[in-house]
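Newbie here. two chains, one complex. Structure please?
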Amino acid sequence: MSMHRILIIEDDSLARERMVTALSQHSDCEVLEAGSIKAAQQHLEASSVDLILSDLQLPDGLAIDFLVEARKQLPALEILVISVLGDQSTILSAIAAGASGYLLKDAAPLDIYATAMEVLAGGSPLSPSIARYVLIQARDAEAANSTKSGEHSILTPRETEVLREIAKGFKYHEIAQILAISPHTIPSYIKSIYKKLDAYNRSSAVYKAVKSGLLVLD
Amino acid sequence: MDCLYLINKLKDYTVRLESKWLLQIISLSAVLLLLWVNAIGPDISHHKVTDLTCDTTAEPTFRGNLFQPTGSREVVNCRGTFTISQPHSGDYGLLIPVFRDKVVITVNSQPFPTTQIEPWRTPGLLTKIPYYTALTRAVLVDDTNKVHVRVEALSGRRAMLGDLYIGPEDAVRSQFRWLWLSSVIVPTLLIGAELALAMMFFMIWNKRRKEHAFGWLAVFLILQAAQGSHIAPPITGNFNGVSYWTLITLFSAAAYVMFARALTGNIWLRRPWLLCVAPTALVAAALNSDTQTATQLLFPIGIAVLTSYLLTSAYIFYLGWRRGKIYAFLFFLATASFALLLIHDTLLQIGLINSSASLARPGIVVLVVAIILLSINSFSTAQAKLDSFAEAMKQRAVEIELRLQLSFQELHRQREKLLLAHERTRIMRDLHDGMGAEMVAILALAERNGQASSAIAQHARSALTDMRLIISSLEDYGGDLTMALGTWRERAEPLVKAANVSLGWKIDRLPLVDPFSQQQILNILRILQEATTNALKHANASEVTITASQNDNALIISIDDNGHGFERPATTGRGLDNMNHRAMQLKGQLTVNSSDRGTTVTLELPFCSSCEKRFETNIAR
């Protein structure tokens, strides 16, 4: 069993310890912790990591730029954003930071571990709220495109269907059943959706709003 | 788009203007033709008395006055003969087209009525009233008759006699009528027209002070009407042959130059008041000189000034035309024609040419017609412009109003969204900074203390879940309840998992619920949350299933568990009341069926007829 190096960036020490405990009790996890972006940077300089769990709002600023930079340096790096509320603006910022998803601060220890392992295994979890956001973005982009020319829509019809079912709260295996497709194909749809999302999310108004501080993150 | 529209409109105007311009040229030609016909009349040249011999003498005047106690007047005596052909038995007529100033006729020693022109009314040398008298057959003899014409000049003026025609009454009278028309009737009509137009243009100028052209035109026309008009009083009387009213002509010519200047927007004449110098000087000179000087020296100077003013105006109009002002061409033509007629008359008066009629005075018809055409043209053009601009404006107004309405609606939507976002941000910051962090801390501490505190951890976790639920209700679902439900599942999942319960999820495609406000969505989610929490806490269930579907009349959301049911009051009573209260606010129906095999909570939300059409669009489509 290979070792996973996981860096937890969280300024709230109680919440951080919870996460550290939830992960380090498993023998395949080696956990590093940081309470600020600066501390996280020092860790990254010293050694490489496979997964970062990070709060976005830290004492020394927004973590978005740091996470984007880290991902550039370590292309294999996976990121999960830690959030108290899991609200829309946090999710959008997480996507902007290149995260594969988010983790609630109060997630049960087993869930924390399970989510981390899922991400490390290459399965990007897509939550209903992210799915909803993507659908709305795609619809707006399509509306803007259709007035210009008959360009292809950004999402394929199948991807849209998958997203719609996710947004309605269905799990991957339930969706496979509803759409009568193989459960193994769903992650590939999700991956493709993520790629498209990442492409136009950076130019989106919400991302810009978050970057310019118009939208406050939790 | 707008620019193109305007350009097209302008093109329309240009085409319309050109066709009008053509119409004006045609009218002008018609008027000129009419004048020409007037001047010619029927041919009576063969009735001309050819053997007329005249001698000029000066006679002393009998009456003197304060300014000219003594003086003399010029008298012309002419004698001639005419023959009556035998077969003609009708009356004869005698016609003198031009004479000055008093004529006395004797035929075969028989005297005929005497005529004298009124010097105060008509311009001195340009006076052209034809003389006609019928010669009854009884006075005439067959074969050769003798005629004697005595022409007397008024004091200080030159006596003058034009041609003399004697012939059968019909032909001569007919020619007289033509001359009378052009020398008396037309000028009289003109004075009326001039006065009417002057008043009209004055009114226009009064309303639109910026349009100086109309003001100057009014001045010009007033002066024209006053000069030689029947309404002008005879201020000279008999003591002086000079018609002072004639001097007004110079001022009216100056006003005409000003009009040309204003109409074409030409400002090369930097000091326009200079135009008044020559007329004023002439008036001063005329008032202080004797009749002889006034008539023989000042009159030609006046004519020269007049002609130069007219030619100046014609040149200004010409320049205006060259600069692209179409109507200026019309005035150029009219003014130039008038100047030519004036020159013709001047030559006639000084005896260089011989013609039966003067043309300048009726020639002013050309100018007046041009003015009338101009005013009609400018009015109809302005009207057409106004009409189509009004139409265009109306169209623009409608478009703008529509756009405004749309943008207002959009603004309203954006504002609502923004307000909501602000509200969400505010609440979230409060929750995050305060309660959220505290709850996580409580949770962490409770977990650290182990089994004993797991109830605390559970409460902390459900408090966090409830917080997220409130925030979720504020998010933008585009009116799609299924999405709100999906987000609820995301939020509720940890709680359900922590209780070791499996969650069944049966969500049909539901119509859009635009009519549901954020508050209503929160109410639905709260009912869902309450029922689920009850199932988790009190029913000891291993499975909870959420179903959302619809029938023809209503949207149905139900929460089923496989627990042992509950007895009414006690712990669940308060939660039930809350759910009923929320269902009431939603105008829906809440039913709870509980048995020892499980509990079913059903929320039925009837569609409202007016909301139906809002269900058509779907966020995901």
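Moderator note: Confidence is low (pLDDT under 50) at residues 148-152, 214-218 of chain A. Strands of chain A lie at 4-9, 29-34, 51-55, 57-58, 61-62, 78-83, 101-104. Thread marked as resolved.
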